[in-house]
């Protein structure tokens, strides 16, 4: 059973690697098939950024005209109090405008939706990143409710298969990440949040590595939201001592407090800000490195460079698989640490008397 | 730059998705999983404690058994000793009785022998007297002619007999 799972995972990753190596090639080829010069920056940005459709490939018809093939996704827009919902395919890949009542929507050259009369749009579309995230949500719910069922079904027995694999990670997060930082007394309250956080980030990191996948966890809006949740959880949990430490650090001369208090106050925001930047930069950076390696083949137009670049991509893919787990671990670890700091019950009274 | 400008839509969907996933997993995944893990850890801890306790109880029981065995052995020895004493006493008593009985039998036998001897003596004396009388009668018949001599003779016999 175990070896079967391992074999399956191994072949799955091999498949991922080979597809990864091929998928951007196909895209890049399509991109510079005509006389235009291959532009690695555009190719890379196209892959790293969010979009309204899930782009798969481009092909050229008999007339040499290029046709993108993509899965259309729903566009949801609030404009002047009216809600407009339509499929992204209505834009015909940005070539046409969409008219809904009095609102005229156009897609600019950067792929953003603009209202022709300059009306303010609140854009809640199911973009590629959102779609990928919803898939991750379905995977998470499916996997972990199945694992939970296994516990109910064979209560009191040794875990097996996927249950064993996930138990290992869950116990690791609980015993090595959450309990040491938050403490035995309060950890149970935060464990569900931290487990969800870890697996949510990890799943989205891995989905980002799937060929043709979205760079969800490398999007600043995604990391910002998770950092914001950490910020809220930390500060709402913060006890008297936590706030006391920030605005009136014990044992510090009053004059120094004038400098120290603002620094400590800013510290509240810099901690989650660092979380946001770290995850964003690591994931997006990894994607850019892989895409850059792929670009070499098209810049130098050489098979030799292509093979060398592919070898580099394989190495980077393994590194990225590691980074995917590492970054979700670090995000969870630091969030536990911040919560632990916010709810810690120190004994300052003793220190102050010295 | 686009790359570092967070989009409102993705913020909204991320927050919503994360919270929904959190709520669902908390209720339907983490609760049973963490509960089962806690339960299992508790069971293991309890089992270890129970095993330790059983071991201690076993040791205590062993010690108790050993003690009981020692007591039983001591008891057995005591009973055997007592039984032997009783048996010895019985034997001794029997011996004494036997000796007494035999002494009594011997004494009564001696008594009987003495009586028999007395009777035999009397018998012999009677016989002797009778014989003497018969002899005397015959002598008398013969010596009747010589009366004096006969008397003398008879006297001398009688003296002899007396002397015996």
UniProtKB/TrEMBL annotation, chain A:
Q: Does the keyword Transmembrane apply?
A: yes
Q: What is its main location?
A: membrane
Give its localization.
Cell membrane; Membrane
Report a single Gene Ontology molecular function: proton-transporting ATP synthase activity, rotational mechanism
Could you tell me which InterPro entries the record lists for this protein? ATP_synth_F0_asu, ATP_synth_F0_asu_bact/mt, F0_ATP_A_sf
Q: Would you say which domain of life the source belongs to?
A: Bacteria
What topology does it adopt in the membrane?
A: Multi-pass membrane protein
| Annotated signal peptide | 1-28
Q: Transmembrane segments in this chain: where?
A: 130-152, 190-210, 216-234, 255-273, 279-300
Q: Name one GO cellular component term.
A: proton-transporting ATP synthase complex
Q: Which SUPFAM superfamilies match?
A: F1F0 ATP synthase subunit A
Keywords, sorted A to Z: ATP synthesis, Cell membrane, CF(0), Hydrogen ion transport, Ion transport, Membrane, Signal, Transmembrane, Transmembrane helix, Transport
Gene3D superfamilies with a match to the protein in the record: ATP synthase, F0 complex, subunit A
Q: Which family does it belong to?
A: Belongs to the ATPase A chain family.
Function of this protein? Answer: Key component of the proton channel; it plays a direct role in the translocation of protons across the membrane.
Q: What is this protein called?
A: ATP synthase subunit a
From TrEMBL, chain B:
Q: Which residues cross the membrane?
A: 6-25
Q: Which InterPro entries match?
A: ATP_synth_B-like_membr_sf, ATP_synth_b/b'su_bac/chlpt, ATP_synth_F0_bsu_bac, ATP_synthase_B_chain
Output the Gene Ontology terms for molecular function: proton-transporting ATP synthase activity, rotational mechanism; proton-transporting ATPase activity, rotational mechanism
Record's bilayer topology term: Single-pass membrane protein
Q: Which UniProt keywords apply?
A: ATP synthesis, Cell membrane, CF(0), Coiled coil, Hydrogen ion transport, Ion transport, Membrane, Transmembrane, Transmembrane helix, Transport
User: Gene Ontology terms, cellular component aspect?
Assistant: endomembrane system; plasma membrane; proton-transporting ATP synthase complex
Q: Does the keyword Lipid metabolism apply?
A: no
Report which residue ranges the record marks as coiled coil: 37-119
Q: Which CDD domains match?
A: ATP-synt_Fo_b
Q: What is its main location?
A: membrane
Q: Which SUPFAM superfamilies match?
A: F1F0 ATP synthase subunit B, membrane domain
tRNA-binding found in the keyword field: no
Q: Name one Pfam family in it.
A: ATP-synt_B
Where in or outside the cell it occurs: the entry states: Cell membrane; Endomembrane system
Q: Which family does it belong to?
A: Belongs to the ATPase B chain family.
Subunit arrangement? F-type ATPases have 2 components, F(1) - the catalytic core - and F(0) - the membrane proton channel. F(1) has five subunits: alpha(3), beta(3), gamma(1), delta(1), epsilon(1). F(0) has three main subunits: a(1), b(2) and c(10-14). The alpha and beta chains form an alternating ring which encloses part of the gamma chain. F(1) is attached to F(0) by a central stalk formed by the gamma and epsilon chains, while a peripheral stalk is formed by the delta and b chains.
Q: What does this protein do?
A: Component of the F(0) channel, it forms part of the peripheral stalk, linking F(1) to F(0). The b'-subunit is a diverged and duplicated form of b found in plants and photosynthetic bacteria.
Please give the NCBIfam families that the UniProt record associates with this protein. ATP_synt_b (TIGR01144)
Name of protein: ATP synthase subunit b
Origin species: Thermoflexibacter ruber
Q: Which gene encodes it?
A: atpF
């Amino acid at each position: 059973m175990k070896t079967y799972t391992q074999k399956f995972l191994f072949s799955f990753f091999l498949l991922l690697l080979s597809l990864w190596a091929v998928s951007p090639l196909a895209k890049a080829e399509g991109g510079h098939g005509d006389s235009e010069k291959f532009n690695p920056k555009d190719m890379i940005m196209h892959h790293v950024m969010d979009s309204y459709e899930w782009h798969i490939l481009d092909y050229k018809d008999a007339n040499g005209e290029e046709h993108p093939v993509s899965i259309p996704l729903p566009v949801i827009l609030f404009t002047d109090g009216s809600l407009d919902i339509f499929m992204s395919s209505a834009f015909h890949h940005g070539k046409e405008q969409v008219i809904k009542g009095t609102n005229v929507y156009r897609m600019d050259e950067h792929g953003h939706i603009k209202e022709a009369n300059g009306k303010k749009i609140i854009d809640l579309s199911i973009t590629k990143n959102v779609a990928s995230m919803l898939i991750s949500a379905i995977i998470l719910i499916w996997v972990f409710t199945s694992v939970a069922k296994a516990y109910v079904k064979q209560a009191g027995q040794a875990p097996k298969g996927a249950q064993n694999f996930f138990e290992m990670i869950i116990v690791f997060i609980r015993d090595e990440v959450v309990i040491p930082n938050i403490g035995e007394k309060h950890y149970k309250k935060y464990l569900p949040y931290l487990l969800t956080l870890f697996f949510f980030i990890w799943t989205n990191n891995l989905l980002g590595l799937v060929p043709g996948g979205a760079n969800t966890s490398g999007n600043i809006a995604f990391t910002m939201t998770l950092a914001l949740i950490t910020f809220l959880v930390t500060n709402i949990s913060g006890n008297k001592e936590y706030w006391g430490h920030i605005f009136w650090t014990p044992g510090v001369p009053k004059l120094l407090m004038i400098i120290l208090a603002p620094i400590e106050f800013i510290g509240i925001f810099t901690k989650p800000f660092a979380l946001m930047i770290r995850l964003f930069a690591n994931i997006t950076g990894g994607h850019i490195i892989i895409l850059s390696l792929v670009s070499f083949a098209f810049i130098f137009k050489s098979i030799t460079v292509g093979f060398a670049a592919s070898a580099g991509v394989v190495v980077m893919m393994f590194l990225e698989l590691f980074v995917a787990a590492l970054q979700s671990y670090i995000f969870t670890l630091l969030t536990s640490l911040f919560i632990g700091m916010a709810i810690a019950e120190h004994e300052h009274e003793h220190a102050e008397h010295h | 730059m686009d790359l570092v400008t967070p989009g409102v839509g993705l913020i909204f969907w991320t927050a919503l998705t994360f919270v929904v996933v959190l709520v669902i997993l908390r209720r339907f995944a983490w609760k049973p999983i963490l509960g089962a893990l806690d339960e299992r850890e508790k069971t293991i801890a309890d089992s270890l404690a129970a095993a330790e306790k059983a071991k201690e109880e076993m040791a205590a029981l062993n010690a108790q058994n050993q003690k009981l065995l020692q007591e039983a052995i001591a008891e057995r020895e005591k009973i055997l000793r007592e039984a032997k004493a009783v048996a010895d006493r019985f034997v001794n008593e029997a011996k004494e009785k036997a000796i007494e009985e035999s002494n009594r039998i011997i004494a009564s036998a001696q008594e009987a022998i003495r009586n028999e001897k007395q009777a035999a003596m009397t018998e012999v004396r009677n016989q002797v007297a009778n014989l003497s009388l018969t002899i005397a009668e015959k002598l008398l018949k013969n010596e009747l002619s010589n009366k004096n001599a006969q008397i003398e003779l008879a006297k001398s016999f009688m003296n002899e007999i007396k002397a015996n």
